[in-house]
Structure formats: C-alpha cells, structure tokens
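Recall that a protein's primary structure is simply its ordered list of amino acids. Everything else, from secondary elements to tertiary packing, is in principle encoded there. The following example makes that idea concrete.
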Amino acid sequence: MADIINRILETWESLLDEPGAGSQSARYRISGSPRFGAYLAIRFDDRAPVLEFGPITPDLLKDAPLPSIKGVDSDLSYHNQELFLSLTLKQSAAIDIFLTLAARLSDDLSGVDYPITGYNVIRRVLVVWRAFFSSEKKVLSGSEQTGLAGELILATMFIDNGIEVPTVIRAWKGSERSHHDFQLPLASVEVKATIAHNIETVSISSLRQLDPTGTQKLFLAQVAVDSHDHGDQTLPHLVSDIRQRLSSFPADRLEFEEKLLESGYRDKDESNYAQRSFQVRKVRAFSVDENFPKLTYDTIPEGIVEAAYQVNLGTVALQALTFDDLMLAISSNQND
C-alpha cells in the first residue's frame, strides 16, 4: 500500500503541472466511493489548493455547520450540476498542514458511501485540526528542539532494539501533552532530554508527570546530549530517519506527521534546525516506584492543586538503569 502522505504530495505536484489559467481549476480524486468522493484541486488564478467533497446536500451544513478554521475558507460549488463542499487554503505558509489534512481526510473517507457519513467524518476531523491552523508560533525554541530531539532519539533507540515501528509511533504521546511521553503496552516512559553538563537535576512540570497511576510500570528516561553547530544528528535528520522507517506503515506514517505538527515541527522551518546537531552523551533510566522522589496528588497536602519541582537524581544514582536494562524492564510482564 502506497504511503498516503507521499500519494497526496505527488497528487499536488501533478496539479501544479496541470495547464490552466484565470478562473479555471483542476482536481484529482483522492478518496471516497462512487457515491461520495474527496478531491484535491488547484485554482489557477491564485494557485490555491482546494479540498472538495461530494456530492452533498445543502441541509447538511445547515444542521451542523463546519468549525471556523483560520486561513481556510469553506464554500459550496457545483460540478456537473452536483453540489460539493470546498475547503480553500488562503495562507500559503500552511501548505504542509493542509496537505497532511488532505491525507487524514483521504484515509478517513476511504470507502465512505453516503454524504451524511462523509460530512460527519469531515466535521469531526476539522474540529481537531483547526488548532493546527490557529497557532501563531513560528519555530521551536532551543529547549523545545532539545526536548523533541530527545523523544525522537529514544524512539529510534526503541526501534533499533526490537520494538516494532508502529508500536513506537502509537506509543509516542509527548506531542499530545499527555502525562507520559511514551505509553508502551507494558510500561510508560517519561523522557527528560538535556544539554546540560550537570545531569543530576531534572525539572518536573506537573503532579501527573511522575504519577504511575494507570500504568503497569513507569520509568523516567534521561537523554543527555551534546549540542553542536555542525553534525548529522539534526532534527530534520531524526525526522527523516523515522519517516524512512515508516515507509511500509502508511497509517502510522500519517499518525507520525500529525504528531510532528502537534509538537510544533514544520518542514518549512528546516533551515532553522539544520545547523544544530545532537550527539548522545548518555541515556539512563529510573524506575518511578515508591523509592523514587516525586510529588503526586496522593502525596501532597490537601489544598495544593498543582506543583512544578526539581528532582535530584544523585539521591537515586545507584538505582539508575542502563538503556539495555530499560529495554528488559519495559518488555517484561512481571512487575518489580
């Protein structure tokens, strides 16, 4: 099965090569069924990408209007006397987000037979995706780059040590602002990446971050890296490497792209990240058990509703696990 992201990108490139001018447009079918289709189109007057869906009936929009999305106009248009819903991208800088949205909708609308079903799918997806278009954020800060690099480095290490690629991508929750960065089948892992030379102190941002409730086992993994102005291990390289590993897993590739967008990573910003390389210095982990110093909702005085704090890992240095130890621990069914 072809990678749906690559298929959408290739379709867009083909549309850009189509001859046309003025008010003309061209479109290719990307998903759907004989009764309801999804199309990627181009308007030649402004070279704007358009997603079209239909045929539909006007009462669908009246009963359940689409959410408003910054930089995306929704409208109705006719093709061969049939009514179609169209979404037109008005901010060209968001083309990568728009084409990833096209891939998500293409996947979710595959095989949809009826307009009401298709419209409900579109509306549900757009409710989630409007946040991607509304962000004013430009590029990741230095600390955000380090944090994302640490998570991608650990994801790659998991894959290299026998955990299946789809399992790792589905487990990655850091971009979703979940309590723990990886929620694997048998354990959760919270990742702390640092470029500091003193790796004895880590910052904990909430009472949930080291709360093992709901997990079989919880580990804190520290990824210490050196940051260099030149080198191969850049954020774009880490992203490209995982994309390559996902070439045989199209559904998981799409999920990875969505999580990258949620993390704030955009391909158009690659030049801002290409000069900073992350060289792994040390990876170690700690079992977050009753002996690990932490604050959780169950351990704080009544009246405190949230807290951010720091943990001195030197107090539990003898409990540190190597990465191999961590792999053994998260693969074991037996609780410690």
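The chain has a mean pLDDT of 92. The chain has two domains: 4-134, 142-331.
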